[in-house]
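Note to self: keep these together.
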Amino acid sequence: MLFFNDALHGKPWSAEAARQQWISMAGSTGHLITGHALLGISNGVITHTNSETASTTVHFGTPTDEELKDYVDSGEPIHVAGAFTRDGLGSCFVDGIEGAPSNVVGISVPLLRRMMKATGISLTKPWRNADIVRPQ
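Structure:
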C-alpha cells in the first residue's frame, strides 16, 4: 500500500484513477508499506508465527502531461499498488527511494530475513547444497 496525503492507496483499478493519483503524487513523497506473515509448520502444526511491516520512502518525479498519458495508456499503473513500479516503466518517474528497494517490488528481502532469523529459520542454509551458478 502507498501511504500518501494521509491516506492509504492500493491499486487504482482504472486509468482515470491512476492518472488522478499521479497528478497528486507528482513532485512529492510517499511511503510504500509492505507487510509479511511468516508461519513455521512442523508435522502440519503451526509452531511459529511472525508478522511485520516495512516502509520505504518514495520520491516521485513530475511526468509531463504527455508522459503521464503514455504511462497510464501502457496499463502498468492500473494494477499495481500506488500506481507505479520501481522495476518497470514507472521507474523513470521515481526520483529516489529511501529504504530497502525490495520493499517496493513485493517481498521485502531484509524484512523476510529478519523475520526468519527471529523464528529460528536460516535464510542461507538452503544455499549450501543448491545448484547455484557461481561466478568463475
